[in-house]
Design goal:
10 strands, three-stranded antiparallel sheet, alpha+beta, 240 residues, 21% strand
Length: 240
């Protein structure tokens, strides 16, 4: 569209696409047809400024790799507080420990994860990415018998727990039939053990000594029952 210039030109500048339309970082309107045209809903955005106060949770990670525990803190931001659109999202993460062996890469990891948190969108992919990191020296079993392939994977496990806690990841537990099956299998195994020679308690968890690692839930809970390896944690069976 042509524009007629009727006054003398006294100044000029280069138009920038970014300046043509100013977008408030905190407020993003819902798309048309969503029913919220009249409202501005605050979404997570990398330009969203950090509030003076954030709510956080601190998790303790004790591994056989170090005599000192690692403390992982995840701070959340509450968006649209007091409205029907209120939701909680992770904003930043900090890791602290007396052990300085892993200081550099832990600081780098926390900064990257915090940047991803503040970017917004679906950040649940971080859990799977961190779970897939393996230590070339070998992993370890945490309390309860669950196998951790690396310290990074356990950090991913903590993030997974936190995202489930705030509702970003829906709990995908066993259904009632599966729970009943697992309880029945475990009761049957314990009854057989009680009638025979009782072994000592496994210091790594509540499952029988000598139990093997389950490839599905990564818990050391696979035992031989009726000629078939069965997991007492998730009910996985190699016989189907």
């Amino acid at each position: 569209m042509s524009i007629k210039i009727e006054e003398p030109i006294v100044d000029y500048g280069i138009a920038s696409p970014e300046k043509e339309e100013e977008v408030t970082p905190a407020a993003v309107a819902e798309p048309e047809g969503s029913g919220y045209e009249a409202e501005n809903v605050i979404q997570m955005h990398e330009r969203l400024e950090r509030p003076e106060r954030l709510e956080g949770s601190t998790y303790k990670i004790a591994t056989p790799l170090s005599e000192h525990a690692i403390y992982l803190t995840i701070n959340d931001i509450v968006l649209n507080e007091g409205t029907r659109h209120e939701h909680r999202r992770p904003f930043e993460i900090f890791v602290n420990s007396k052990n300085m062996d892993h200081f550099q890469w832990i600081v780098a990891l926390t900064r990257i994860i915090s940047a991803v948190f503040r970017k917004g969108g679906d950040v649940t992919f971080l859990v799977e990415e961190l779970h897939s990191v393996f230590d070339p020296r070998g992993g370890y079993f945490k309390k309860g018998g669950k196998y951790m392939p690396s310290l990074v994977a356990e950090i991913g496990e903590v993030i997974d727990q936190h995202l489930r806690k705030i509702g970003m990841i829906q709990e995908a537990g066993l259904d009632e039939h599966q729970k009943a099956l697992v309880e029945a299998k475990r009761a049957e195994y314990e009854q057989r053990q009680a009638s025979g020679t009782e072994g000592s308690e496994d210091e790594e968890g509540d499952y029988p000594p000598g139990a093997e690692l389950c490839n599905k839930c990564h818990t050391k809970a696979m035992v031989l029952m009726d000629g078939c390896m069965t997991c007492l944690a998730c009910g996985e069976s190699k016989c189907g």
